Fold:
Amino acid sequence: MELASERPVSQISVAELADRAGVTRATFYNRYSTPLELLIQVLDADLDRGHRLEDERARHGHSAGDLLRLTTAEVGDHVERFRAVYRLSLDDPAASGVYEALVRHFSAYALAFMARADRSALPDANPQVIAQFMAHGFAGAIKAWLNDPSVTKDDMVDAAVACAPAWWAPGYLPRSS
Structure:
C-alpha cells in the first residue's frame, strides 16, 4: 500500500515489492501474478469489511434508508483511507485496473443485493445490466469526488443516495451468515 500510495501500481516492479515486503520474487509469484492483483485483493478485503458492518447494522434494526447512507459513507471512508492509491490510478491509464476492480466490486455487490431483495420490489429488467449501470454510476461518483477538490465525501454520499433507485433501500435484507 505504501508503494501504491507513492506512485501508480503500473510503475511498481515485483522485485521492488518483494524487497519491501521482505520476501523473494518467487514467494510473490506463488500467490500473485502482478502487483495490481495484490493491490486489488487488499482493496477488496477492506471494502468487504464495510459490508460486514452493513450486515451488523441491519441486524441491529437500522432502517433501510439509514443503511444506504451508512454503507455509502463507509465506502467513502474506504476511499479516504486509500485516497492516494485511487488518485494515482485515475491519472494513469496503465493503472485503470484499480478503477475497473472498483466497478467489478460494486457490480458483484449489486447482484448479491438483488439476489436477496424482495423480488416484488425489483424492476423487471436484466439484473446484470442493472448491476453494471449502478456500479458504473457509483464508481463515477467516486471519480468525480476524487477529481474535484471542491467536492467533499458528504457531497458524494448525498449524490449517490439521491441517485439510488427507489427500490434499492426498501429492498435491503441482511445477508445470511
In short: Residues 23 and 112 are 36 Å apart (CA to CA). DSSP finds nine helices and no strands in the chain. The chain has a mean pLDDT of 88.
